[in-house]
Amino acid sequence: MKGDLVLFHVIWFPFAAAFLCYLTGKWHKMIRDRFLQLSVILEMGLMALAAAAYFQEVGLAADPTISSFHVGELQFMWEGFCMQGLYLKLDGFRLLYGCIAALMWMMTGIFSREYFAHYHNRNRYYFFYLLTLGSTMGVFLSGDLYTTFIFFEIMSLTSYVWVIHDEKPAAMKAGEIYLAIAVIGGLVMLMGLFLLYDAAGTLRMSELHDAVRSVMQEKAGQIYAAGFCMLFGFGAKAGMFPLHVWLPKAHPVAPAPASALLSGILTKTGVFGVLVVSAEIFRYDPAWGRLVLYLGTITMFGGAFLAIFSIDLKRTLACSSMSQIGFILVGVGMMELLGAENALAVRGTILHMVNHSMIKLILFMAAGVVYMNLHALDLNEIRGFGYRKPLLKGIFLMGAMSIGGIPGWSGYVSKTLLHESIVEYAEELAAHGEPSLWISGIEWIFLLTGGMTIAYMTKLFVAVFLEQHPDRQQEYDAKTAYMNKESIFALLVPTVLLVLMGFLPYHTMNRAADLAQGFLHGEMPAHVVHYFSLTNLKGAVISMTIGALVYFGLIRKFLMGKDEKGRTCYLNLWPRWLDLEDLVYRPVFAKAAVALAGYVCGIIDRMHLVQNLLKAAVEVSAFLSRICDYLVDMVLVLFRSTTHKSRTERRVYLIGSRVSRTLGKILDQVVWLMNHTIRRNNPIERSYVVTFAEWEEMMSRTSRLISASLSFGLMLAAIGLALTLAYLLWW
Fold first, then answer.
1. How many whole angstroms separate alpha carbon 188 and alpha carbon 165?
2. Mind listing the pLDDT tens digit for each residue in 145-180?
3. Is residue 296 within 8 Å of residue 345, measured between CB atoms?
């Protein structure tokens, strides 16, 4: 199969499989489950074929040297699709993340069979599960931002069903904020694409840098406005502060396999967009780099701070995801600030993306094992569950050690590269005599956040696997068959890969960075990075020391206490009112909506638009009413000439319109005739004139409500379209 056709099938196979899976589920549920597993395995096989075609195309199969990793790509173009065409592309970075996405879907698909054994609405979940796979692949393999946007929006809508799967109040509320941020972010991103296309004349990622450079002096304001809009849209999906509010709410209520994908891969689609904007539009731009660096630092520290206070297993992991996305964004910022000498930042950013995806796949599925056995996530309820479960304990420990950046595990490698990029930039500023205090502050926040990561992961591990439950420990220990062989396989495979990445970094992680760094225009480091040198180990030791102080000095001392029975328990001390969504976003959005509505209404009032519309509507209605009256009069004259009824009898019926009264009288006459011939003078219980009049009034009320709402919606749509066109024409 040709390489370009492989790309097409990688995208569209999951969409076709989704419909087949749904139809199969209507017929036989067990066959549906097996079909789902086969589908995700075949998708992994398609990515393997794409990898083989890529390496054959660029000539890497025989000579995989480091320098050759920077060239070669596969392309697929569907001309005329949605007018602009569909453009897919496969290079080293896209190949790497396409394989990671396929691997994650394969493992969660295998794990889902046991996890969803007692769930309702599995058919619906699997349908949208496969649709999201296809759209996510479309994002990572997109070659232009138009294609990215199409698949990005499909992915946002299909993954919404994951969040609300339980349909409980908490799930519905989390789904509401998830969908709101997805829709708002998508609309803002679309405006950014309009601005960018108007300024640069292209959305092809490979053409953006040169096109933007040629117009930057003339249209700098428009380019930056487009960049801010796209950062808003992509950052919302990534979980970047201050658009992170969906992340701690959606993960605890979503099923564990969905949480693993939401955290491990869907957030990376947002990061993918941020990488494209940073590397292609604002390459080596220090102002843009500082913006992303500051946002990343706040996201990094804020997520870890929230995780420290959380006592819910999946919520803690969700806050951890926010924090790790912050680490990645710090790398993106440093990539911009370091300019052409950004090899450490580029490689650290790519590798931390890979690490976080693999780690959260393991940790969320491990949390899923706990939940499907206990149906609880509160640390006080699940503590001690893994006390006598060495396999689950070892799997969770590998993920915890890696995300904590402990030397010997993969997270240490990527965090070391990110830390070294910060140190390198601080030295560069000092060499040029520029103030470097602010970058030193960011370095210490980086190390502090690393320590906080170790502290909250230690809290989770101790609570679930080392402590014992005060009442139910014997019950927990008796659960020996707590997961089947399929679930064990789904957890062990990524764990083994993660361990190999950590213990063999030069043969695994370095090769992955070599493969993918061309996407970010990175070069090889000026020197070989010795990960386990004393200089690099120093940062890890500082973070581990901070982690021990936070765990024993804050968590054990202040965030643990006694319950009503005098037993030690974890305390939820985070104030309920301190919620960014309820405290800021909802009130601000409500006020902004009122202000915007008032402004629009003021413009309409000044234009006398409403009066003109109403006047025209009244005139049209009067004209139509006169026509109807003439027609009804003609019918009534004909009716009177055949029934010989008097005018006095006509005046009895004063309700309803002429048409309803006429039809009612006809039916009344029919009923009267039946009563006198068949039912022998049984009285008419109710006149059909009254019945038709009531129906007519009800239909009239309904019609008025529908007309009013439709007219208002059309008016707003027309106003929005007019404003958008006026804005584009003005630019």
1. 27
2. 989 998 998 998 898 888 888 888 888 888 888 888
3. no
